[in-house]
Amino acid sequence: MFSLEGITKSLQDWLYLNFNPTWALVIECLIVIVLAIALFAFLGLVLVLMERKVAAHMQIRLGPNRVGPKGMFQTAADTLKLIMKEGLTPDGADKFLFNLAPFVVMIVAMLILAPIAFAKGFQIWDINIGVLYVSAISSLSVIGILMAGWASNNKYSLLGAMRSGAQIVSYELSAGISILCIVVLSGSLSINEIIASQQNGWWLFKGHIPVIIAFVIFMIAVTAETNRAPFDLAEAESELTAGFHTEYSGMKFALFFLAEYINIFIVCAIGATLFLGGWMPFHIGNWQDFNHIMDYIPSSIWFFGKTFFLIFLIMWFRWTFPRLRVDQLLNLEWKYLLPISLFNLLLVTVIAIFGWHF
Amino acid sequence: MFHLLQTNVTQTVSDASSAGSYFPVGIQLLFVVGMIGFLMVVTHLLGPKRHTSDKLQTFSSGIESHGDARQPMAIKYFLVAILFVLFDVEVIFFYPYAVNFRGLGWSGFWAVLMFVAFFLCGFIYIIKKGALDWED
């Protein structure tokens, strides 16, 4: 059976057989780096194409279909174009902060990737506080956006950045509380232990209604946190041109764009890990035969299948709901989602104390 | 992706919560900074460099821009940011409880219920004060 864990294990054994430990470690670091770059390039290319194709099919058109078979190389061509473009820094801008902002945004996006488990035993960094690490690092992304908006010295950028700042910090509260629901049920902050606790069923199914509420709130909150429609006030193209990255061009713009899509992937991966079992196959209680058949599908396929399903859901939102106004947006969070998620958390705690979950 | 890195480090540094267990993320940080720096430098060298004064103006949809963006903003945004700091600290306080609540049992639950009650008092206060109303 195909398994990534087997491949990494045999690779490690081979490295330790042929090199001394220090060199083996260095080679492993290089392999990890190459794989991470490959994953980034792959995600960037696939997600942008997927966004355009999904958008096109929802509007009954074909989308990109000229470059390569069914337009598959369209994003590669676009990337090449962006690399060859001139990267301008406007005269009025704060030059240092203007160029620093894409760094901050990308670094944040890539650092959150570290503790995610892509398949069974296939993870860059297995830390005991994985969930806390993810929520801590993801709150840094607002700094990059505010930096970009302020340093551009453009009114559109400034407005976009302020909106985005208010929006991201607000929705982080209810996203954090929904994540806590799963931490309460599984009793651990480690991503691996949370996945292991879903051995006999995913939390979405065995946690009763409170976990379903938490999942819905989580999806709404992460849609807002990644500045996606219907919460895309930060870059509302019909009123603010492009929001906080109006002044960016060439590769600096591409980095913002890439970071946005990486962030979508990451929040969906976190959602899939916490609520849908990560790489854990679909198991039902103690139906041994059924579980055994499900185990034949490789864990990496389960993980990417769930993650891409959630990404599709977020893309679907974009073409379903109209954009909110900034006061409606903050009302939704502060007056509805925050109290609901707080009471939901208490409910989950009661369920866990009584042991009512399956 | 690679458990290997982790297992290596934990073999040499037996204590899992020591600085050694943060080694993979340090590597990742270094390489991210390197990669973005490399990309920025390469595209800077590849791209054309033709600066004109029109091009370097701030964009304002084709009309001439008036003043710059260093202007006062609506105070509401800052208010939301300050409220976030307060409420986020309270959410962070939930983390230790969420991990340990099985050991604490009902007495811990009542304590948290009291904590949430205080939390809600503050919350109702800011709603009543109109801190989140955007129409003046």
The percentage of residues in β strands of chain A lies in under 5%
Radius of gyration of chain A: 21 Å
Please indicate the percent range of residues of chain B in DSSP E strands (runs of 2 or more).
under 5%
Terminal CA distance of chain B reads 52 Å
String of helices and strands of chain B: HHH
Overall body shape of chain B: flat
What characterizes the major β-sheet of chain B?
none
Number of helical regions of chain B: 3
Number of domains of chain A: 1
Q: Which regions of chain B are unreliable across 5 or more consecutive residues at pLDDT < 50?
A: 7-16
What does this structure look like?
The complex is a heterodimer of chains A (about 350) and B (about 140). Chain A is mainly alpha-helical. Chain A contains 15 helices and 2 strands. Chain A has helices at about 5-20, 20-60, 75-85, 95-110, 130-140, 140-150, 155-185, 190-195, 205, 210-225, 235-240, 250-275, 290-295, 300-320, 325-355, and strands at about 115-120, 120-125. In chain A, helix 4 (about 95-110) runs antiparallel to helix 6. Chain A is globular. Chain B is mainly alpha-helical and about 140 residues long. Chain B has one domain: Methane Monooxygenase Hydroxylase, Chain G, domain 1, CATH 1.20.58. Helix content of chain B is about 65%, strand content about 0%. Chain B has 3 helices and no strands. Chain B has helices at about 5-10, 25-45, 75-130. Chains A and B meet through helix 1, helix 2, helix 4, strand 2 and helix 7 of A and helix 1, helix 2 and helix 3 of B. Chain A: This is NADH-quinone oxidoreductase subunit H. Chain A: It is found in: Cell membrane; Membrane. Chain A: NDH-1 is composed of 14 different subunits. Subunits NuoA, H, J, K, L, M, N constitute the membrane sector of the complex. Chain A: It comes from Flavisolibacter ginsengisoli DSM 18119.
